[in-house]
Amino acid sequence: MQNKVINKRIENTNLYVFSKDAETGVFTYSRPLFLDEARAVAESLDRLIKTEYRGVSCLKSGLKVSPNGVLYNMSILKGILANRALMEQTKGNAWFPTIKEGFFLHDANLLPSEEEELMDFGIALYGDENPNQEIAHSLMMTSYEKKYAMPILASFKSLGLNLGGQRYGVMPALVSEDGLIRGQDARETLKRFLHNASCYGVCGLNRDSGGWYANWDEVGYADVDYRVGRVSALGSAKNLKDIVETQIKERFIDPRTKLEAELSELNNLEKACIASADRVLS
């Protein structure tokens, strides 16, 4: 039995529902990172950097967390590790949005709107050449073994990170078909990207408010404006309704209560003004 495709935003919330499992009733949806969740991911990454990836310079600055739960100072390589940490701490029930999920979120105006804010999504593998030829060669070997058609667009969910490599000290690896787009599907997907035709090896894949890009050769470069602020997740109807109720309280009930108090105060001031005028002018 196939999943029921939904692909709709819940109006006046920051929630987007992709689909519903026809057998279990579990929804796949997108929401912002929770603050505690983002902090846990950043802490997990710090531990990995101090243990398994000690001495890898492109990872050493770690990730930062904004007050609203956005992970920033991101890079493609950090994103791979951070997503693995997120999936581990949620037992696979949450992950950074895949490329296809990102398109739906973009069209629903749920991704950052500032041009300088870049949201990373993974990598594009065009062939066994530069840029990042060493990484390209390693990934191409896997693609040959798996009989993957080229090109390949790999979301964070599709990727792992191994030690080794001259340029960065770590090497991305294709570890899952989840979030992987291959062959003709990838060529069709790349039509949405503003810049990709000049790339022949491996490049980072990201998006800003101006559009989508698959030509970033410095996959290890981190910057405060590179970020991930949303996750895709699994949840029951009750899970989603609980989140909606929280947002209703924050967006409607609390502001309305404040406005009602202000209106009551204005009414009292108006009555006092009228009574004063009557006394003074009588």
Descriptive account of the structure:
With 282 residues, the chain is an alpha+beta fold. 38% of the residues lie in helices and 28% in strands. It is built from 6 helices and 16 strands. It has helices at 35-50, 76-89, 99-107, 133-146, 183-190, 237-281; strands at residues 4-9, 16-20, 27-32, 64-65, 71-74, 94-95, 118-125, 152-155, 159-163, 170-174, 180-182, 193-195, 202-208, 211-216, 223-228, 230-235. Strands 4, 5, 7, 8, 11, 12, 13, 14 and 15 form a 9-stranded mixed sheet that branches. Strands 1-2-3-16-6 form a 5-stranded antiparallel sheet. It has a two-stranded antiparallel sheet with strand order 9-10. Strand 9 and strand 10 form a beta hairpin. Helix 1 (35-50) packs across helix 2. The longest helix has 45 residues, at 237-281. It is elongated, with a radius of gyration of 24 Å. The N and C termini lie far apart (82 Å).
Q: CA-to-CA gap between the ends?
A: 82 Å
Instruction: Briefly note the structural class of the backbone.
Output: alpha+beta
Radius of gyration: 24 Å
Task: Characterize the largest beta sheet: strand count, sense, and whether it forms a barrel.
Answer: 9 strands, mixed
- Element-level helix/strand string: EEEHEEHEHEHEEEEHEEEEEH
Overall mean pLDDT stands at 94
Number of strands: 16
